[in-house]
Design a protein that fits this description.
Shape: globular
Structural class: alpha/beta
Distance between the termini: 67 Å
Radius of gyration: 21 Å
Helix content: 25-40%
Strand content: 5-15%
Number of helices: 10
Oligomer: single chain
Order of helices and strands: HEEEHEHEHEHEHHEHHEH
Largest sheet: 7 strands, mixed
Number of strands: 9
Strand order of the largest sheet: 5-4-3-6-8-7-9
Length: about 325
């Protein structure tokens, strides 16, 4: 066998391997979620006989200063406390957002999360609370994406329903965003400063295992410059939400990484802001299955970026809306 034959055979094997990997990637990669017509509707305290109304689009002009997006899955126990503290701060004179809405996205819950949210809206008529009930469980990332694509705010805040983050720290994110240049900007809450404190040292073994393992992998994926990608407390300008969330594929726990990678691709500035945080019981993470799922999704994410399958188009000029 001559050298040319060996080279030809080697090249053929490499190309076949690449093609095989690409085929597997396409088969295992999730497509962009297209919501049903039912999912594009909301209810509120003003809904007549419980009838739903059509949701606005992120492409529309903003109508309020802030949209608070709350993804919720079976949260009848933890969400009421979080909502009370949220509304208390939003109504205070210290809050930088003078007009606002709270958009609760029930991610196909099996309990009465939507019922509780609507009851809470009726009990607090001074506040604009909207409830979206997804007809199937998408995952936290899918619920956040849905809320972001239908918020009316000049700025949009995602916040976990468990109340682990102190809502008053939204002011810190707001101030940090004010200091960023451009109409596309992101300010994210960070718990990195708490790594050596009692808040993290004494929290559940489950979360600590996920945290340390995840940080190691993230350096390879491309977001090692962010110390805490997974904090469920992130503020987006309307422009950044318009540029990022239509192109978010991952609906699972690790969706934050894809969002931050898209921001990096688009050269959207990100401010990482230390916030107060505490452990709240009732986590739905499973240390075994969710760790494996996160690893799988990170590999899929990285591969799709390498092959150029997942990306956001470059922004066109837009009026400032942050």
């Amino acid at each position: 066998m001559d050298g040319a034959t060996i080279i030809y055979g080697s090249v053929t094997l490499v190309l076949a391997a690449i093609l095989s990997c690409y085929t597997v990637l396409v088969l295992f990669s999730p497509s962009l979620v297209v919501p049903s017509e039912k999912d594009r509707r909301f209810r509120s305290r003003t809904s007549v006989e419980g009838k739903s109304q059509p949701l606005p689009s992120i492409r529309d002009q903003p109508e309020v200063d802030l949209t608070v997006v709350v993804p919720a899955y079976n949260e009848t126990e933890r969400m009421p406390t979080m909502l009370k503290s949220t509304l208390a701060h939003l109504a205070s004179t210290q809050c930088p957002a003078k007009t606002y809405e709270v958009l609760i996205v029930d991610d196909g819950s099996k309990d009465d999360t939507s019922v509780l949210a609507l009851q809470f809206a009726s009990e607090n008529p001074r506040h604009d609370i909207r409830v979206v009930t997804l007809h199937r469980n998408l995952g936290k990332g899918g619920a956040v994406r849905h809320g972001m694509l239908h918020g009316r705010g000049r700025r949009l805040l995602m916040v976990d329903a468990d109340g682990a983050s102190r809502f008053e720290d939204m002011d810190l994110l707001w101030k940090a965003m004010d200091g960023l240049e451009g109409d596309g900007a992101i300010a994210i809450g960070s718990r990195a400063h708490l790594v050596k404190t009692e808040a993290v040292v004494k929290r559940s073994l489950l979360r600590n295992i996920l945290m340390y393992g995840l940080h190691t992998i993230l350096r390879v994926v491309g977001v090692g410059h962010i110390r805490d990608t997974q904090c469920g407390f992130k503020l987006f300008s309307r422009r950044s939400a318009q540029l990022i969330f239509p192109y978010q594929h991952l609906c699972t726990w690790i969706f934050d990484v894809e969002v931050l990678l898209l921001a990096k691709q688009l050269h959207i500035p990100v401010a990482e802001v230390p916030i107060e945080w505490h452990e709240v019981s009732g986590s739905k993470l499973n240390v075994i299955t969710d760790s494996l799922q996160m690893l799988r999704d990170l590999l899929i994410l990285r591969a799709n970026i390498i092959f150029g399958r997942w990306s956001a188009p470059p922004p066109s000029p837009a009026k400032k809306s942050s």
